[in-house]
Design brief:
This protein is an alpha/beta fold. It is built from nine helices and eleven strands. Helix 1 packs across helix 2 (about 20-25), helix 1 (about 5-15) packs across helix 4 (about 60-85) and helix 5 (about 105-115) packs across helix 9.
Length: about 300
């Protein structure tokens, strides 16, 4: 039994005329009659009572009609969902992002914009350091990632597009001698103790801290490590040292903390979008398209 047999049967059942059904189906009446006979033989039941004057459904035909309609409806729905999934309008998208992104305008605007445009795509979000996102992309556990690395920092097999750079700031205790400054240079921090991420955390900030300090002529003294940026801010509030973090985190308001912009060249943290280095899947392509729209929209105007 094929779907065409069901379509032919439903057409005859709804018109109660082989002639009108054949016209609806754009086939000849003899082939239609043959197909219905083949269906009845396969089922082992007569579906229609035929006479010169009329065609009527048998009891078996009435029962079969209900199921035939349901099967055709489900088949049409399955085909439509397959088409929409192939076009990226349905399904699931697994998105990685770094911990500082929710504090920026980029991630909230991107996620809300994507959900408005594609409400039937389920977003699965994972907060991961950059190195962990690269590993997840390589293993097929993520579809796309928002990572803190520049355009040249992609490992083999990963496509990367740099989106921009966030300035870095120094987080200091409110009682610190520099706390009232409008901005500072890294050279002024040579005698300070720093709070930063552990080396193996998978973020580039410890390396960037070393680079900025080296350019300023000193080796930074690390007094504490913490895996969460907000934890680092809390430790600054406790007076344990200074932290160097992306400027979007300055919206985290904790008593006894100040955020000071850095004036040094290179005191910025790149943001890029990464995906497996092949033609993006349709749903990933739609995500990247929304990302381009968000980038082109002035902050606060969305």
């Amino acid at each position: 039994m094929e779907l065409r047999h069901l379509r032919y049967f439903v057409a005859v059942a709804e018109t109660l005329s082989f002639t009108r059904a054949a016209e609806r189906l754009h086939i000849g009446q003899p082939p239609l009659s043959m197909q219905i006979r083949d269906l009845e033989e396969e089922l082992g039941a007569r579906l229609f009572e035929r006479s010169r004057r009329k065609v009527a459904l048998t009891e078996a035909g009435l029962r079969f009609l209900e199921h035939a309609r349901a099967i055709l409806e489900r088949a049409a729905r399955a085909a439509e969902e397959a088409r929409r999934a192939a076009a990226g309008e349905l399904g699931e998208l697994r998105v990685g992002f770094t911990s500082s992104l929710p504090y920026s305008e980029m991630l909230p605007a991107l996620l809300s914009g994507f959900r408005r445009r594609h409400p039937e795509v389920r977003l699965q979000l994972r907060e991961l350091f950059t190195a962990a996102q690269f590993a997840a992309l390589a293993e097929g556990e993520l579809d796309v990632g928002l990572v803190r690395v520049g355009a040249q920092g992609a490992p083999p097999g990963i496509a990367l597009q740099e989106l921009g750079r966030d300035p870095l700031c120094v987080v200091v205790h409110a009682s610190h001698a520099l706390a009232q400054r409008a901005a500072i240079s890294f050279a002024e921090l040579a005698e300070e103790g720093f709070i930063t991420f552990p080396r193996g955390a998978g973020t580039g900030l410890p390396d960037l801290l070393q680079t900025l300090a080296g350019a300023a002529g000193f080796v930074p003294k690390i007094v504490q490590t913490a895996r969460e940026a907000t934890t680092q801010i809390g430790l600054v509030a406790a007076g344990l040292g200074l932290a160097v973090l992306p400027a979007p985190l300055s919206c985290v308001r904790i008593p006894r903390v100040r955020y000071l912009p850095l004036t040094d060249a290179g005191a910025e943290f790149p943001l890029s979008v990464a995906w497996p280095d092949r033609e993006p899947a349709p749903v990933t392509a739609r995500f990247l398209a929304v990302l381009e729209e968000v980038r082109a929209t002035p902050p606060g105007s969305a």
